[in-house]
Amino acid sequence: MAKIAQLHSIHLSILLCSSLFFVLALSTERNGFSLELIPIKSDHSPLYKSNISDPEIVKLLAQFDRFGKSEINLTDKGSLPMALIPYRKYLVPFTIGIEAAKRTYNLIFDTGNRLTWTQCHLCHRCFDQSVPIYNPSESRTFYEVKCNEPLCRPPLFYCINGKCEYHRTFLNGVFYRGDLSKEVVTFGTYLTIPNVTFGCTRDSRVDFPVNTIHGVMSMDMSPTSFLTQTRVLSQGVFSYCLVPSVNTGSWLRFGTHIIHPGQYQTTSIIRYPDHLYYVSVLDISINGQRLGLAPGTFDRHPNGDGGFRIDTGFPAGRLIASAHARVAAYLEGYFRGFNIPIVNDPSGVYSPCFGITPENQRLLPALALIFPNGAHFDIQSQRLFFINRENMMCFSFRPDREQSVLGNFEQANTWMKFDTNHNEWSFAPQDCARQS
C-alpha cells in the first residue's frame, strides 16, 4: 500500500543576529528557510519575453535537449552538457560575497548537479554575463579550499599547482573548470550563510544563449551540494512545487518551512555513488492499464547506466528505449482507435506525435509510474504531451539508450519532498501557483 501521511504545518521561529560575518542564529529545534524559484516565463525571469508562447518554449527545449547524456564524458555521468542548462526553467537568485565583492547571480536550480558554481575573476575564457563577474580579491570572507582538506578528493576534485581544482568536460566541446572555494552566501535580507562551498569557474566554453544566466545551484546529495552544506539549517529535507507556464513564481523550501499537503504518497530514494535521486519503478500504466514491462526494465546496472531518477536538470523526461517503445506502441494504438493520425515532429526530437484538435483534447490519456510499495506517480495529460499551434502534440518523454528521468515538464503542479535522512521521496498533485 502507498504510504499516506497527514501532517500539520509547523511554524518557524527564527532569531536573526548581526555580527561582523552576518552569522545566522536559528532555533536549535526548528530550522528551515525558503528561497524563491523563478520559472522561465515569469516576468521576474531574465529569459522573460511577453510574447513568447508555450509552443515556442517547447521548441527551445527541443533545441537544447538535443545534447543528451550520450554526449557526456563517461567520467561525469551525473552531469549534463551546459548548452541544455539555460532552459531548465527555474532560477534561484544567489548572492555571493560581502562588501565590494557582493553580487547577485541567477543560478539554475538543479537536483542533478554536484557543485554550485559561477564565474570568477580572473577568467582565462569567460562567457558574457549581465553582471560583473565575482571578484574574490574584493572580499575578505573568500576562502580557497586547500589540497589537504577532506572535500578535495578525486574523482571530483584534484590538487593542481597547490590548488583544489575541478574540471568538467563534455564530448560536445563544452567544459568548465576552476577552484573549489568558500564564501558568504545571502538570500534576500533575512538569511546569510557563511562558508558555503562553491566553484569559482575561471575557464570555460559554455554556450548560454542569454547573458543573464550565471551558473548552477547544486541540489543533489553530494558532499559539495548546497543541500548538504546547509544541513544544519535544512535538516537534509527540501520541497518544491514547479509552477507550469504561468506568470508567477514558487518556493524552494527547507526543513520546517516545508508545507505538507493533507495527503501524499511516499517511496524510497535509492542511493548510488553519483548522489542523484533514484527511485525504483516497477511498471508503467496508461489510463489505469498496466503495460507489464519486463522485470528490471528500470534497474541500475553495474556500469552506472539505467535507473530512474528525478532531475530538475532535464526540461522534459527520458525513458529507457525498451520502455519508450512499449509506451509509444500503446499510444499509437490508443489514438488510432479515435482516428487521430500519427504525424512527424519537424524538429525530429520527440515521438510519437499526433494530430490534435481542441475537440479531441479531452481524449488525452494519463500515465502513472508504479512503485514496488504500491505508490504511483500520476502524470496528467497536460504534463504528458507538448501541444503546439499547428494542432500537433508529442509525447514529452524522449527515448534514451542509458537512463530514465522524470523531468521538469512532468513534475509541474506536483508537490515534491526529498528527505535525505530517511531516503524518502514524497509527492502529491497540487496547484503550485496557489501553493506559492
Strand content: 25-35%
What gap, in angstroms, lies between the N and C termini? 30 Å
Described by strand count, sense and barrel closure, the largest sheet is: 6 strands, mixed, barrel
How many β-strand stretches? Answer: 28
Radius of gyration: 22 Å
Question: Can you walk through the features of this model?
Answer:
The chain has 436 residues and is mainly beta. The protein has 6 helices and 28 strands. The strands form 4 sheets. It has a 6-stranded mixed beta barrel with strand order 2-3-10-4-9-8. A 4-stranded antiparallel sheet has the order 16-15-21-22, with no helix packed on it. Strands 19-20-24-23 form a 4-stranded antiparallel sheet. The longest helix has 16 residues, at 321-336. The two termini are 30 Å apart.
Strands, helices and their partners?
Elements: E1 32-39, H1 54-64, E2 90-96, E3 103-110, E4 117-119, E5 143-144, E6 158-160, E7 163-169, E8 175-187, E9 191-205, E10 215-218, H2 226-229, H3 231-234, E11 237-241, E12 250-255, E13 265-270, E14 277-279, E15 283-286, E16 289-290, E17 308-310, E18 318-320, H4 321-336, E19 342-343, E20 353-355, E21 367-370, E22 376-379, E23 385-387, E24 392-395, E25 398-400, E26 404-406, H5 408-411, E27 414-419, E28 424-429, H6 432-435
